[in-house]
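In this notebook, the sequence line spells out the residues, with the fold written below as integer tokens. This is how one looks.
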Amino acid sequence: MSEITPNLVNTTAAGRVPAPSQSVVRAAEASEHTRAPQKRSDQVELSDRARLLSKLRETPEVRQDLVDRVRAEIDSGEYLTSDKLDAATDNVLSDLNAFG
């Protein structure tokens, strides 16, 4: 290749690129200050463990006295559930129908 492309950059006699003029530097600085600020957003990623701990903190305190009483009633058969109440109601209705 015998062709040499011309140098399009202004250089000094020593082959160095001259420093930009003060007006060019000021214009560049001014454009940096007048640019609209870029919107940045922070992100937070929570692990499954952190989510669980957060939910646990939101749960109400355990009323241990109530838990103990209900457990004792269940163990003794005295705890009334909706199933027990439904069965008792059905028995009363069938007794009433037998007399009616």
Remarks:
- The longest helix spans residues 82-99.
